[in-house]
């Protein structure tokens, strides 16, 4: 009995031990679920933006030819993208050079233009001269006493381009296309001594020069009665107005100051205007003002007379006249108007009379 009981106890102990060992193995061998590794979210790299456009074009091309222009968009990361076919192209004078959507420039006649390319919110521009192959352009301003001299005939009388001629515009500017190396220019205008200028043209360049009056300049300083008479029109605008005028002269420069009426003066404008004289020809400019969107007002009128508490008479335009010892008379190309308001800005007009043949007359007192 004792022996059996002992054997039975041993068997029980063995079985219990095995169970314990088995349970221990289960606990230690059960795999633990690992935590998923954390992957950092990548920070998106900023998109490179355009900082400028770089336009490529020749300095000049001959008339009757075409050339491919190009434009690159330079970005913040230093890269450059060709956007030639996507840019918007323009020319300041398509009659001289026209540019199509692909950036091909076609030259028609001699002249100067500015070519521009626009892409997104950036733009770039460059100057382009149309001139015969192997030659250049010379341009400049002809002056008398510091003021541009209009109506001067400029001719190439010797050198490459001999026979080319042009006439200065209202600001005294001229341009000749098709010259090179050493040339001689002749400048002629009634009332002035002929001018001879020898210059070198190794490339397109600017050349300004003065002309000398042939004789004494007409003295027009003094006191006058100025009468302005509008041309016929249906607008409700005064037909004629007369003012006292004091004319000051400094070489070619003229300044007229008005009085004798209820003139509205603001920022130095409203009773004065300026001009010039060359020979016996006189020019005056009466400045105007304009409005943009939302009645943004810029510029000043040079002649403003108060008609009543709510209306003003305004004159603007350009005068071309001739001077004699007693008178300065000619025409005014511009506008006579009646505006609402007692002071600037004037952007509501109840009547305007615009044309090229208003009468301008100053008679010495």
Structure explained in plain terms:
With 365 residues, the chain is mainly beta. Helix content is 8%, strand content 53%. The strands form 6 sheets. Strands 11, 12, 13, 14, 15, 16, 17 and 18 form an 8-stranded mixed β-sheet that branches. Strands 19-20-21-22-23-27-28-29 form an 8-stranded antiparallel barrel. A 4-stranded mixed β-sheet has the order 2-10-9-6, with no helix packed on it. Strand 11 and strand 12 form a beta hairpin.
Offer a concise description of the structure.
This protein is mostly beta strands and 365 residues long. Helices cover 8% and strands 53% of the residues.
List the topology elements.
Layout: H1 2-29, E1 50-56, E2 60-61, E3 66-68, E4 70-75, E5 80-82, E6 88-91, E7 97-99, E8 104-107, E9 111-119, E10 122-130, E11 136-144, E12 147-148, E13 153-160, E14 165-167, E15 173-188, E16 195-201, E17 205-206, E18 209-210, E19 222-229, E20 240-250, E21 253-259, E22 272-278, E23 281-286, E24 289-291, E25 297-299, E26 303-308, E27 311-323, E28 327-340, E29 349-364
Parallel strand pairs: 2-10, 11-17, 11-18
Antiparallel strand pairs: 1-4, 3-8, 4-5, 6-9, 7-8, 9-10, 11-12, 11-15, 13-14, 13-15, 15-16, 19-20, 19-29, 20-21, 21-22, 22-23, 23-27, 24-25, 26-27, 27-28, 28-29
């Amino acid at each position: 009995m004792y022996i059996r009981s002992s054997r039975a106890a041993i068997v029980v102990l063995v079985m219990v031990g095995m169970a314990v060992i088995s349970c221990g193995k289960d606990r230690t061998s059960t795999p633990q679920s690992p935590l998923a590794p954390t992957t950092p979210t990548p920070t998106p790299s900023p998109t490179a933006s355009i900082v400028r456009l770089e336009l490529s074009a020749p300095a000049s091309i001959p008339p009757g030819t075409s050339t491919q222009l190009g434009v690159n968009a330079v970005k913040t990361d230093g890269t450059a993208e060709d956007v030639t076919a996507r840019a918007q192209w323009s020319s300041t004078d398509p009659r001289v050079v026209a540019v199509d959507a692909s950036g091909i420039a076609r030259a028609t006649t001699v002249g100067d233009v500015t070519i521009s390319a626009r892409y997104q919110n950036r733009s770039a521009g460059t100057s382009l001269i149309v001139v015969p192959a192997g030659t250049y352009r010379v341009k400049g301003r002809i002056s008398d006493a510091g003021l541009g001299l209009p109506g001067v005939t400029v001719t190439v009388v010797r050198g490459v381009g001999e026979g080319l001629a042009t006439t200065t515009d209202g600001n005294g500017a001229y341009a000749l296309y098709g010259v090179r190396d050493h040339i001689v220019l002749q400048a002629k205008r009634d009332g002035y001594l002929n001018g001879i200028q020898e210059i070198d043209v190794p490339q397109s360049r600017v050349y300004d020069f003065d002309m000398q009056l042939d004789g004494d300049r007409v003295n027009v300083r003094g006191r006058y009665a100025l009468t302005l008479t509008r041309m016929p029109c249906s607008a409700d605008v005064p037909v004629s107005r007369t003012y006292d005028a004091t004319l000051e002269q400094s070489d070619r420069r003229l300044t007229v100051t008005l009085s004798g009426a209820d003139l509205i003066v603001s920022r130095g404008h409203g009773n004065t205007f300026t001009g010039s004289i060359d020979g016996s020809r006189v020019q005056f400019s009466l400045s105007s003002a304009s409005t943009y969107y939302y009645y943004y007002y810029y510029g000043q009128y040079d002649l403003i007379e108060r008609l009543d508490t709510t209306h003003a008479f305004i004159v603007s335009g350009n005068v071309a006249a001739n001077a004699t010892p007693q008178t300065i008379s000619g025409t005014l190309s511009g506008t006579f108007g009646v505006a609402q308001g007692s002071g600037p800005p004037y952007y509501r007009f109840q009547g305007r009379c615009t044309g090229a043949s208003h009468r301008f007359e100053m008679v010495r007192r």
